[in-house]
């Protein structure tokens, strides 16, 4: 038996608005003059759980579409922003508590990354943070929520699974539907009407519950 923890990337492993703001700056070239100001207002609302939009990328895209920015332009802006991931143009940091959590987890827990983002810059960030070797598998451009299902099924065939992310519909709903445990982190964790197995504003908040889960699934039962 091999239990698995499946992590999302943006907003879960990596925190900070750097990549989102880079995306917004590129989209702003085709948007209204006050676009960046409106993006910042909505990001501030999202940070305290007061926005109806699911994350920073949704903020940028939704407000740009309101200004008439087309999908081709938005896709190009997003793709360009991802090439800057982890640079001074799009800085991010490891989530508070991440490094300590991964160090504390038993090596018998398989760690998996599953993200809708492309792979540009992510491998390099994991290496820079000193945690690349802890990941047994890296899945990019997954196409959540539907694209997460085969990853979950493969992991569940080997043992219990905990899925961790900041967007319930994308990161956790497919896991819950298949019987996996779930952990909701980020700005919506406290206000979400959903019922994840565990929740906290930061990964550090839920780290004790994650460690408890990991211990329980590795402990033989009579």
Q: Brief overview, please?
A:
This is Haloacid dehalogenase-like hydrolase. The protein is an alpha/beta fold and 222 residues long.
Please describe what this structure looks like.
Keywords: Hydrolase. GO terms for molecular function: phosphoglycolate phosphatase activity. Pfam families: Hydrolase. One of its GO terms (biological process) is DNA repair. By secondary structure, this protein is an alpha/beta fold. It is built from nine helices and eight strands. It has two domains: 4-15 and 92-218, 3-Layer(aba) Sandwich (Rossmann fold), CATH 3.40.50.1000; 18-83. 43% of the residues lie in helices and 14% in strands. A six-stranded parallel beta sheet has the order 5-4-1-6-7-8, with helices on both faces. It has a two-stranded antiparallel ribbon with strand order 2-3. The longest helix is centred in the last third of the chain and has 16 residues, at 203-218. The radius of gyration is 18 Å and the shape is globular.
């Amino acid at each position: 038996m091999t239990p698995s923890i499946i992590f999302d990337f943006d907003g879960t492993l990596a925190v900070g608005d750097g990549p989102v703001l880079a995306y917004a700056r590129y989209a702003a070239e085709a948007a209204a003059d006050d676009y960046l100001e409106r993006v910042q207002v909505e990001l501030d609302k999202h940070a305290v759980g007061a926005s109806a939009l699911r994350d920073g990328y949704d903020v940028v895209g939704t407000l740009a579409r309101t200004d008439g920015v087309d999908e081709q332009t938005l896709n190009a802006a997003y793709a360009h922003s991802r090439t800057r991931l982890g640079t001074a143009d799009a800085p991010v940091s490891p989530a508070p508590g991440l490094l300590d959590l991964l160090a504390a987890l038993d090596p018998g827990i398989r760690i998996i990354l599953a993200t809708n983002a492309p792979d540009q810059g992510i491998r390099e960030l994991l290496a820079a943070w000193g945690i690349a070797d802890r990941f047994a598998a890296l899945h990019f451009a997954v196409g959540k929520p539907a694209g997460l299902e085969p990853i979950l099924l493969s992991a569940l065939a080997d043992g219990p699974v905990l899925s961790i992310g900041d967007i319930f519909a994308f990161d956790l709903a497919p896991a819950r539907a298949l019987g996996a445990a779930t952990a909701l982190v980020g700005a919506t964790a406290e206000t979400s009407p959903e019922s994840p197995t565990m929740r906290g504003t930061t990964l550090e908040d839920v780290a004790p519950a994650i460690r408890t889960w990991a211990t329980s699934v590795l402990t033989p039962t009579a």
